[in-house]
Amino acid sequence: MELFANQVLAGIATGAIYACMALAVVMIYQAIDHLNFAQGEMAMFSTFVSWQLMQWGVPYWGAFVITVVFSFFAGIVIERLLFKPLAKAPILTNVAGFIALYAIINSVAGLIWDFTIKQYPTPFGSSPFLGSQLISTHQAGMIGVTLLMLVLLFFFFRFTRVGLAMRAAAALPESARLVGINTSWMIALGWGMAAAIGSIAGMMIAPVVFLEPNMMLGVLIYGFAAAVLGGLSSPFGAVVGGFLVGIFENLVGTYIPGVGNELKLPIALALIITVLVVKPAGLFGRAIVKRV
Amino acid sequence: MTTMLNVKDLRAYYGQVQALHGLNFSLNEGSLTTLLGANGAGKTTTLRAICNMVRSTGAIEFEGKPIGTRSTENVVRLGIAHVPQGRGTFTTMTVEENLQLGAITRSDKKNIVSDIERMYDHFPKLKERYSQQAGTLSGGEQQMLAVARALMLRPRLMLLDEPSFGLAPLIVRDLFRILGKINREEKVTILVVEQNAQLALELADQAYVIETGRIVMSGNAKDIANNEDVRKSYLGY
């Protein structure tokens, strides 16, 4: 029983990171109808930036804040330079753009910081949380930071005018323009926020998976699985999906013999395919009907 | 009377297809004008061209300023509210959020609250349903909401695209009565596109008739309503 509780709590902790990545993916998907394959690489690059800052002597939380702000503006710049010109291009052109972005960020990170695995610090320590063996302080910290961020995002979208305008632009771009909303900048803002959320996910997971240019690959695939499970049209669903996928991953790894770390990625992919076959809209998403 | 909107030689295109063939018309400040015509005559395209939602050439002047090259959102910010065909309701948001969106470009936060109250006075049904998802409203209520959302901009000019579409006759009467009231009391210039010619001519003071992308008739709404030939050939009643 203790093993079960332990695995569930650990699943919630990594699930928090998947939830962040899923949320970032859904935010961009809502705005431009495309999956950002480079979301993980953007997060990885941000994490390297924070690591570099700490190498230069900036304290952890200072580096954290600077990195989040940097990622926000970097996300906006990427949208303005690369994806705004592609706004009306066909799907495949956009996919090529995302893959290019993925490759570029991955290589540049490798070029600057090389591909050796680096330790990444945690501000929470890794002792048992409140004296309990079930969960470490870092895992508790991951959950706490994610929940705090989710609450802030909820208030932003529910109670601020910019949040309202962003929701309107994502839901009905044409109507949004007709009330005077600059939808193009709302998309850029969405990119900025997605990049900032991703950077938080990267900095939180880095002590667990260690810092290197390919650290986010598995995380992003689980993030995709979470987004698909929750429904790509539902930010709330993405978050719930993240936690569910985290728990699922850990329980399968623990209780089904033969599934070790090697088979964890195929499980995520199997989950994506199963959801797409059985319930394409996901748990909380709306079925998308396109008029032709 | 001063001219509020002046349109000269307006041509609009959907891809290779030309939908408007050199339209000329103008709206006087404070007037309530209707643009009539059959299906496919170019009524909706005319409204979309004013808001730069379709590729067009020609000159469009709003209060003396050329607006032809402005983006849709910047046309709206000048005080031109457009109630599109199909109403453009944000169906997953609440009634109140829809109203707030109408005022999203305004910076006078204090007045927004009182304006929302004023909308509830105009449309009491909306007050009952303020926290409800807009998509759950009936067609008539959604049309009321669309008009209210447009008014939240405090527009100088309001463009309405077939507000009567799909509504029961009684509701249409009610809606048109409110439009007349808004025009008189709030001094909003209104251009309303309609297929329901009879009702629109009762409401309006000026009228234009459009056929296959050209204005074929213009004048006082009463004269047009009483002109037997016009009624038979263009208005079909």
UniProtKB/TrEMBL annotation, chain A:
Entry-linked InterPro entries? ABC_transp_permease (IPR001851), BCAA_transport_permease (IPR052157)
**Ranges annotated as spanning the membrane:** 12-32, 60-83, 95-115, 135-157, 185-209, 265-289
A Pfam family: BPD_transp_2
Give start-end of the signal peptide.
none
Instruction: Cite the GO molecular-function annotations of the record.
Output: transmembrane transporter activity
Q: Which GO terms describe its biological process?
A: amino acid transport
Q: Is this entry keyworded Membrane?
A: yes
Q: Name one GO cellular component term.
A: plasma membrane
Source species, domain of life: Bacteria
The protein, known as: ABC transporter permease
UniProtKB/TrEMBL annotation, chain B:
Q: Is the keyword Cytoplasm in the record?
A: no
* Entry's Gene Ontology BP terms: L-amino acid transport
Q: Which GO terms describe its molecular function?
A: ATP binding; ATP hydrolysis activity; branched-chain amino acid transmembrane transporter activity
InterPro entries of this UniProt entry? Answer: AAA+_ATPase, ABC_transporter-like_ATP-bd, ABC_transporter-like_CS, BCAA_Transport_ATP-bd_LivF, P-loop_NTPase
Q: Where is the signal peptide?
A: none
What top-level branch of life does the organism fall under?
Answer: Bacteria
Per UniProt, the keywords (alphabetical) are: Amino-acid transport, ATP-binding, Nucleotide-binding, Transport
Instruction: Report the Pfam families cross-referenced here.
Output: ABC_tran (PF00005)
Please state every residue range assigned to the domain named ABC transporter.
5-237
User: Which SMART domains has this protein been placed in?
Assistant: AAA
Q: Which family does it belong to?
A: Belongs to the ABC transporter superfamily.
**What role does this protein play?**
Involved in beta-(1-->2)glucan export. Transmembrane domains (TMD) form a pore in the inner membrane and the ATP-binding domain (NBD) is responsible for energy generation.
Q: What is the protein's given name?
A: ABC transporter ATP-binding protein
